[in-house]
Amino acid sequence: MDFSFGAEDEELRGRARAWLAEHLVGPYAQAVGLGGPGSEHEGAGIRRAWERELGRGGWIGQGWEADGWGNRRLSLTGQVVWAEEYAALRAPGRVGHIGENLLAPTLIAYGTPEQQDRFLPGIARGEELWCQGYSEPGAGSDLAGIRTAAVRDAADGLYRVTGQKIWTSLAQDADWCFVLARTESGSRRHRGLSFLLVRMDQPGRVEVRPIRQMSGTSEFNEVFFDGAVAAEAVGAEGDGWTVAMGLLALERGVSTLVQQIGFAAELERVLASYAARATAGAGDPVLRERLVRQWAELRTMRWNALRTLASTGDPGAPSVAKLLWGGWHRRLGELAVEVRGAAATAGPAGWAPGLPYELGLDEEQRLFLFTRADTIYGGSDEIQRNIIAERVLGLPKESR
User: Where is the Acyl-CoA dehydrogenase/oxidase N-terminal domain positioned along the sequence (predicted)?
Assistant: First the structure.
């Protein structure tokens, strides 16, 4: 696979850079650098407005395997060019990525033309935000154990969903949730599940409770459904596991490279902090060696992501990627505070006890605290290793 940038890509780079510079003005200029994992509490309102600005520019849905919904389709290299320019200007953290990168490709692959026409334009315009209703208190990494149930009403044909989901990112701002629920009474494990689309604005039927993290922020949520109406299912009733696993497979790709661009920016800030201490005579050769290793591992992850893009149907690729970046990012958080030394234990100037806890954390401290969860959420390291062992290497399944 040739992943070098050509003349067309460089022309796109100029247009992307110019568009971003022209639109990151006024209130949007105040949102530069806000948002993203660990900081989703920052500027939620202005970032939602920015999502609509991106939609008007046609910058949402670049990687969809179809167009005609207001999105501009770009090549893989073009998508990376856009992501690089977006990261370079520290444009606001996206609030619509779950709809754009997870639900939309799933609808294109499994949905009906009517579902595509109903939901894709709203995502492409940045007007409808989505969250993912998969994990439950008793079914996180073992997703097949979900207990949320949905019953189809014979009178109107609509589903009524009852149950609880947890660790639901951005649910507090989402308009819709795609929910994996059990629609066949008495079914077990992967059978009898359906992939349902549920509107979040159902007072008394949908309740969102933020989960306060040790970083002081609350971007994850518990979501309770009490007879919530689900408009329709994607795919056949009872075939939800196939759709859900297809969605998870779509998480790999250009989005992995986009994530690594953010990682590179975080690493640069840690390197700059170390360089400042080294110049002042406080350099540590052991820390320096670990930072060099961190840089080399990030380059390795990039080449692995490019290799994955060039392959098709590799069942272990998403698990390998998750193992790589989860551990890498957690180690970066540890390095961020180690480089700063004792100063990492104090809050920034102007903060005092009694002020909101999250205001007492600086960038490095928040990075350290949030990345403690990187090897757990999205499928723990243990689960990823099981997937690789069983589905790729063909080893015996773990006894249950």
Answer: 8-127
